[in-house]
């Protein structure tokens, strides 16, 4: 109660997005990426929706993110792998690490040897992104070390696409070719390469894909977005004022009015995940009318020029659309000079949260 904005989360849309990915990549399976607390929406709740649709693999980035998901009854994989000293905690929790380096593999194998039984893992290889995954020399060393086969129970061989949101980028074909070549050295091991954008590349999708931003309604590739929006953010006018031509607005008075203007103050700021980079750029919508942001976005508020919005829509408490039918998370991200991932994951816990499509949390919609 008493929040400055309401964040509406549509579980039915999340479920529909999962089904679209599943249909697109069949017969490959679709795993759910629920890192960053389910892209800010609540990882445990997101997982419940995905599991009801048939998802049987969950991915987080860090070991600390796995704990709320361990009772879900499906494998939970830690994409970043384990920092030194986290191995025993991971094993006790029952999470499965992604082994991104020879060092990580050896530490996990050492624990397995000490326990006297093989431990499950995923092996990631670097196919050109130069971020996570074993390089060529490490792969050679891994395959030459008999302890790896003895003590590591690999579930998948994976890699990650760098440019999947640009379907025509040559890196996509190059990485897939490298992945296939290396995968031949691991006969019979299931393979996973594609992320959200990779799901829409016109080729086969191996054995498993990792659905991320597409599940949450973000555009997985350039061009029309095939996904349903999962979030909407609505605030309200907190205060209205008329100012003369030349009036300064906000901290630093970075904006001066070019005419007599009506200004609306909105009780949302960068503490709520509304980027400061939207200062003097971007907009909100009032009753279908675009109202540009003027002045700097503050910690707890920002201001709109509502001079051209019909007066009957302007009053304290009047609804203001921040994310919704007129501007998506991708639109807001473009105005802010960032990506939808950042907008989504930064949405604050200060927002009142409203959940719709609740049936998707408990009812299997698998056809």
Automatic annotation (TrEMBL):
The active site is at residues 35, 251. Pathway: Amino-acid biosynthesis; D-alanine biosynthesis; D-alanine from L-alanine: step 1/1. Gene3D superfamilies: Alanine racemase, Lyase, Ornithine Decarboxylase, Chain A, domain 1. Catalyzes the interconversion of L-alanine and D-alanine. May also act on other amino acids. Residues 230-356 form the Alanine racemase C-terminal domain. GO terms for molecular function: alanine racemase activity; pyridoxal phosphate binding. GO terms for cellular component: cytosol. It catalyses: L-alanine = D-alanine. Keywords: Isomerase, Pyridoxal phosphate. The keyword Transferase does not apply. The modification N6-(pyridoxal phosphate)lysine is found at residue 35. Pfam families: Ala_racemase_C, Ala_racemase_N. Substrate binds at residues 131, 299. Its cofactor is pyridoxal 5'-phosphate. Belongs to the alanine racemase family. This is Alanine racemase. Its EC number is 5.1.1.1. InterPro entries: Ala_racemase, Ala_racemase/Decarboxylase_C, Ala_racemase_C, Ala_racemase_N, Ala_racemase_pyridoxalP-BS, PLP-binding_barrel. GO terms for biological process: D-alanine biosynthetic process.
């Amino acid at each position: 109660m008493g929040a400055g904005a309401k964040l509406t989360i549509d579980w039915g849309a999340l479920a529909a997005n999962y089904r679209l990915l599943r249909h697109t990549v069949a017969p490959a399976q679709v795993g759910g990426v629920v890192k960053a607390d389910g892209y800010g929406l609540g990882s445990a709740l997101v997982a419940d929706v995905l599991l009801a649709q048939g998802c049987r693999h969950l991915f987080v980035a860090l070991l600390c993110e796995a704990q709320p998901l361990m009772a879900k009854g499906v494998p939970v994989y830690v994409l970043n792998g384990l920092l030194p000293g986290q191995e025993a905690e991971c094993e006790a929790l029952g999470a499965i690490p992604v082994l991104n380096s020879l060092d990580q593999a050896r530490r996990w194998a050492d624990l397995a040897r000490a326990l006297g039984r093989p431990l499950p893992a995923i092996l990631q290889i670097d196919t050109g992104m130069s971020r996570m995954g074993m390089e060529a020399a490490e792969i050679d060393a891994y395959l030459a070390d008999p302890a790896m086969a003895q003590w590591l129970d690999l579930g998948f061989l994976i890699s990650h696409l760098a440019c999947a949101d640009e379907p025509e980028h040559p890196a996509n074909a190059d990485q897939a070719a490298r992945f296939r070549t290396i995968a031949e050295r691991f006969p019979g091991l299931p393979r996973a390469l594609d992320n959200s954008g990779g799901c829409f590349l016109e080729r086969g999708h191996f054995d498993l894909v990792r659905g991320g931003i597409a599940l949450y309604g973000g555009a997985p590739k350039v061009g029309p977005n095939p996904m349903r929006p999962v979030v909407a953010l609505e605030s309200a006018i907190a205060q209205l004022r008329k100012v003369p031509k030349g009036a300064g607005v906000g901290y630093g008075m970075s904006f001066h009015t070019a005419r007599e203007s009506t200004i609306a103050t909105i009780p949302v700021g960068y503490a709520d995940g509304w980027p400061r980079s939207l200062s003097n750029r971007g907009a909100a919508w009032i009753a279908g009318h675009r109202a540009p942001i003027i002045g700097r976005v503050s910690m707890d508020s920002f201001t709109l020029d509502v001079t051209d919005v019909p007066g009957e829509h302007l009053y304290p408490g009047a609804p203001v659309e921040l994310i919704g039918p007129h501007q998506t998370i991708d639109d807001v991200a473009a105005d802010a000079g960032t990506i939808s991932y950042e907008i989504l994951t930064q949405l604050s816990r200060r927002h009142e949260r409203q959940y719709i499509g609740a049936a998707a949390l408990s009812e299997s919609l698998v056809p």
